[in-house]
Amino acid sequence: MVDTSRQPKLVGQTVVVIGGSSGIGLETGRQARAEGAEVILTGRNPQHLEQAGLEVGAWKTAAFDATDPDQLGQFFEGLTEPIDHVMVTAGGSYYASVADMDFAQVRRAFDEHLVLPMQVARAAAGKMRPGGTLVFMTGTAARHPAVGSAIAAILAAALPAITANLALEFAPIRVNLIAAGFVDTPLSASLMGDDLENRRNQLRATLPVRRVVEPADLAGLAVHLMINTAVTGATYDIDGGQQLLATP
Questions:
Q1: 140: nearest Cα among 20, 238, 247
Q2: Closest CA to 218 of 167, 183, 174
Q3: Which of 5, 2, 34 has the alpha carbon at shortest distance from 226?
Q4: 159: phi then psi, degrees, rounded to nearest 5
């Protein structure tokens, strides 16, 4: 619901969240809706997406694979009204030592993390109002070299350059990037399994903010980037101060 205690900042605007059925994407949709925006959520799983749409009060939902350029193009071509902002949380990274790498998965990670933002920019630009925003996401692995993190580090290092170049090419549409450390999402829980609570406790004890970064933290930054029309081509770290520590 719209927060009526102050004037919402996104009234009359439309926000598309690609990867909006859970975690950071879902929370971004919720906060954008609280700022008065109409929200369109997309995701791969129709059932999860339907539930997410009900939770957020989404205007529309669309189930498709965003990494398929044909499906992505059809989605944007099918929009009958202009949009203002696109947040992309779809796509993942890949962690493995070089000796153990599955290079099919490496190529998929490059496609999802590096090619997808450019595909989204090209497909969305013709539907966006001037001054709208593309918000992408990456990680902070480039700042923390570690065995098994080579691909994640390459992806994290490349996205700021892609973001800056897209900001020039697609101006006056604004393009910004969020670089996140560990975020306590359902995906993190599924990846870490029984180690999740130990990781949470470690972060609570060592991070300068003394708490774990949550989806709401990233969503709040994403919505701020939609609202602040002076920001483009920028990368924003949000890791609770993890990069300030001697060891990640």
A1: 238
A2: 183
A3: 34
A4: -65, -40
Helix (H, G, I), strand (E, B) or coil at 11: coil
CA distance 239 to 248: 10
- For residue 136, list its beta bridge partners: 177
What is the tens place of the pLDDT at every residue in 166-209?
Answer: 999 999 999 999 999 888 877 776 667 778 888 889 989 999 99
For residues 125 and 68, the answer to whether their CB atoms sit within 8 Å is no
Distances (CA, A) of 200 to 23, 125, 140, 160, 244: 17, 39, 18, 28, 18
Q: Which of 68, 67, 66, 48 is nearest to 58 (CA)?
A: 48
Q: DSSP state, 12? A: T
Q: Phi and psi for 117 in degrees, rounded to 5?
A: -55, -40
Q: Residue 81 in 3-state DSSP?
A: coil
Show the tokens assigned to 63. Answer: 């189930």
Handedness of CA 199, 204, 209, 214 (dihedral sign): positive
Q: Where are the domains of the chain?
A: 14-240
Rounding to the nearest 10 degrees, give the CA dihedral for residues 119, 125, 126, 132. 150
| Rounded distance between C-alpha atoms, residue 207 and residue 122, angstroms | 38
Q: For residues 140 and 161, give the distance between their C-alpha atoms in angstroms, rounded to a whole number.
A: 14
Q: What is the pLDDT of residues 136-178, one digit of tens each?
A: 999 998 888 889 889 999 999 999 999 999 999 999 999 999 9
CATH fold for domain 14-240: Rossmann fold (3.40.50)
